[in-house]
UniProtKB/TrEMBL annotation:
Name the record gives this protein: GIY-YIG domain-containing protein
Function: Catalytic subunit of the SLX1-SLX4 structure-specific endonuclease that resolves DNA secondary structures generated during DNA repair and recombination. Has endonuclease activity towards branched DNA substrates, introducing single-strand cuts in duplex DNA close to junctions with ss-DNA.
Family the UniProt entry places it in: Belongs to the SLX1 family.
GO cellular component: Slx1-Slx4 complex
Taxonomic superkingdom: Eukaryota
GO-annotated molecular function: 5'-flap endonuclease activity; crossover junction DNA endonuclease activity; zinc ion binding
Length: 421
């Protein structure tokens, strides 16, 4: 990814997902995309608001339904990477079949094989069509087990019982399990899963998904309350003092826990506990104080808001002040937000590992910034076409450089593609 395409100055977005659309009139019609706001995006695809993709605009396919979400992407770039692989499994190097076919010794070997038209044609002939619902589910399962995507804090949310049943049949057949941290959420008309945790509660409908920061409002308020007194802060891991204008500090997201730690101290502790030598960024770990398993991505989202999203944080704290502080009896001083944020920003460049812990899992783009500009719209009833090898496993850049009041999605499909169904 070109550094010009990545913005490390924005907080981690509140929500980002990849989705699978299915026509309610023709179930064979499928579409893959990504968005920070599923309800708004579905309305665009169904013509209820401006935007959407040209290939989903045909009345004989509408209305569309979102049958599956892959949630938990900590940046727009991460979601686009997964979207591209899901749309192009025949070309993605994250697919084990492609890696076995290539078996390169160097990056130059990869480029040479990709540039060889005979190899590309042979690979397409060997893989066959990937347009069915079953094939898309198989590919999701494969990618979530790949060395790259398996390290991400992702979740699967099913809204349709028949789609989940097909997923279950495949999971029972395949010789491979998803990583333990990747959770499956049964939602919509799927039967309730008694083992489903309270934090992953059903929302029943795509329209009820909270695509803003409201799920962590109390956490944000608590963190700023605890950091409001920078003269009495000590790391729970190393016991040393935390200097607010120098050190990056993380706070336990559990409501009744007041644990504060140095970013590097806690990340090292989590990584050592995971015993994964190739893992650079933690997935989760036990809080040193309350011993509860906490998600690293949640803590990084709060830290990125505190350090890079001072306007968003102020708005959240103002809202908490109007409604009364629920968790701590008093509202943290709003002025402290700017002081803490400036201190964290100044210290961000002092540690490469600290920066990678935040920016490595998220390039930090705002939820409302160029949000639904996706990759080439993937119409799964269209014929296959070749992708330039230079962008294999890399999302294409659709940045236009400015925000807009009303989001309109321009299709980037090749005009010559014909609908088959």
């Amino acid at each position: 990814m070109n550094e010009a395409e990545v913005d490390h100055t924005k907080p981690i977005p509140a929500f980002y997902c990849c989705y699978l659309l299915r026509s309610t009139k023709k179930h064979i019609s499928l579409y893959i995309g990504s968005t920070p706001h599923p309800a708004r995006r579905l309305a665009q695809h169904n013509g209820d608001s401006k935007g959407g993709a040209r290939k989903t605009a045909k009345d004989d396919k509408r209305p569309w339904e979102m049958v599956l979400l892959v949630e938990g992407f900590t940046s727009r770039v991460a979601a686009l990477q997964f979207e591209w692989a899901w749309q192009n499994p025949k070309l993605s190097l994250q697919h084990p079949l492609n890696r076995r076919e290539l078996e390169p010794d160097t990056h130059d070997d990869v480029r040479a094989v990709q540039n060889n038209p005979e190899t590309s044609k042979a690979k397409h002939r060997g893989r066959g069509s990937r347009r069915s619902l079953k094939a898309h589910l198989e590919d999701v399962h494969v990618f979530l087990r790949s060395p790259y995507f398996s390290k991400w804090p992702l979740k699967l949310r099913f809204f349709n019982a028949d789609v989940h049943q097909l997923w279950t049949i495949w999971c029972d057949r395949v010789d491979g399990l998803l990583p333990d941290h990747i959770k499956v959420i049964l939602d919509g008309d799927c039967p309730r899963d008694p083992s489903q945790s309270e934090g992953d509660s059903r929302v029943r409908s795509v329209s009820h998904i909270k695509a803003d920061y409201s799920p962590i409002h109390d956490y944000i308020e608590k963190a700023n309350f605890l950091l409001d007194d920078p003269d009495d802060l000590r790391c729970k891991v190393c016991q040393a003092q935390i200097i607010a204008n120098k050190d990056l500090a993380v706070v336990c997201p559990q409501g009744d826990c007041y644990c504060i730690s140095h970013l590097l101290c806690l990340s090292t502790r989590f990584l050592n506990s995971a015993k994964e030598p190739d893992q650079l960024v933690p997935i989760d770990g036990n809080c040193p104080a309350c011993k509860t398993v906490v998600q690293w991505s949640t803590m990084m989202q709060e830290l990125s808001l505190r350090s890079r999203g001072r306007n968003e944080t102020r708005a959240i704290l103002r809202k908490a002040k109007r409604g009364g502080s629920k968790a701590h009896g008093r509202v943290p001083k709003t002025s402290a937000v700017g002081e803490v944020g400036s201190a964290v920003e100044e210290s961000a460049g002092k540690s490469a590992l600290a920066e990678s812990s935040i920016a490595g899992i998220a390039d930090g783009l705002n939820v409302d910034f160029q949000d639904d500009v996706s990759l080439d719209d993937n119409w799964t009833e269209s014929t296959d076409f070749d992708i330039e090898p230079d962008i294999v496993d890399r999302p294409r850049n659709h940045e236009t450089g400015s925000s807009r009041v009303e989001i309109v999605i321009d299709d980037s499909d090749c005009d010559e593609l014909e609908e088959l169904g």
